[in-house]
Amino acid sequence: MEHYYLNRKYKDRLFRFIFSDKGNLLQLYNAINDSHYNNPDDLVITTIDDVVYMGMKNDLSFIIDDVMSLYEHQSTYSPNLPLRGLFYFSAMYRNYIEPMKQKLYTDSPLRIPFPVYLVFYNGSMEEPERKEILLSDLFIQNGKGLQPALECTALLLNINVGHNQELMEKCRILKEYAQFIHTIRSKISVGLPFQEAVETAVEDCISQNILSEILRKNKAEVIDMILTEYDENEFREFLKEDSWKKGHEAGVQDGIKTGIKTGIREIIRTFTELQLPKEQLLEKLTNSFSLSVEEAEEYIEKYSKL
Predict the structure, then answer these.
(1) Which of 19, 76, 109, 135 is the most buried (most CB within 10 A)?
(2) Residue 12 β-bridge partners
(3) pLDDT for position 93
(4) Are 306 and 292 in contact (CB under 8 A)?
């Protein structure tokens, strides 16, 4: 396994830091493609370190088996991902053909690697397991029925804990990365300050053998990366989103219960006003609301006096 190092030119991302190791990157590639490459040197790294466009760096790109893969990690969803991918691929292809650029103007086709763009998402908003995001969705539609000359497709993969479990089981290091981020969020959810939550999560994951080798060797750097890459608001936004979702689901259930009680009350009130037999009321309640006779009589006792 290669030595993990921190690029001191800029604050690195933890995801990129982990998968800059060719062994980890090959494990991830194999898991996604159901392939069985076992030599990390088969990967030709094409990551652009010295090009920054609008503050965004190319996370990881590489070529293997004539496929040029761009892997990007995001904790914030953006519909503009394909546009960023277009810029990245343009730069990578320019680098790729540089040694043979004179052939661009010949009558022989240049054979270039097949492009694949994956976005590994672990942000706070609820996203599906897999989602295609298209560059063409950003084009202004002019109503003339024209076909776009360009397309770029970003495939978003949700890597929050509980998502894409088959992929996680195939790629241990990706699963552990997701568990580590989840552990930090769990610490914050019980009230720990952000930095303390990160530091405690690191210690817990080391003891539980989650990213333990990386965390043990690079503890200070990893903590610094997390504190830089994320901010406390991002984690708290995740918790707020999660709490809203759970509260909404509970509210729906409560609403159903409230609606049932309202229906029962109105039926009892109608039967009472019309002075209809109690036996008919009991039959109506038990059949309409799946109540036992005892439950129906309790409701009658409660609502007939209102």
Answers:
(1) 19
(2) none
(3) 93
(4) no
**Claim: this prediction has a pTM higher than 0.85:** no
- For residue 110, the SS3 value is coil
Longest CA pairwise span in the chain (Å): 97
Q: Treating both helix axes as pointing N-terminal to C-terminal, what angle do 172-189 and 194-207 enclose, rounded to 10 degrees? A: 140
Which residues are paired to 85 by β-bridges? none
Burial class (CB in 10 A: 0-12, 13-18, 19+), 191: exposed
Q: For residue 275, which amino acid is it?
A: Q
- The C-alpha R_g of the chain, in whole angstroms, comes to 28
Contacts of 94 (CB under 8 A, 6+ apart): none
Domain spans, the chain: 14-140+147-230, 254-303
In 3D space, the residue among 228, 227, 222, 232 whose CA is nearest the CA of residue 14 turns out to be: 222
Q: Give the position of tokens 């504190």.
A: 227
Give 122-181 pLDDT, tens digit per residue: 987 889 999 999 999 999 987 778 889 999 999 999 999 999 999 999 999 999 999 999
C-alpha distances in Å from residue 182, one per residue of 17, 106, 127, 221, 283: 18, 53, 16, 19, 51
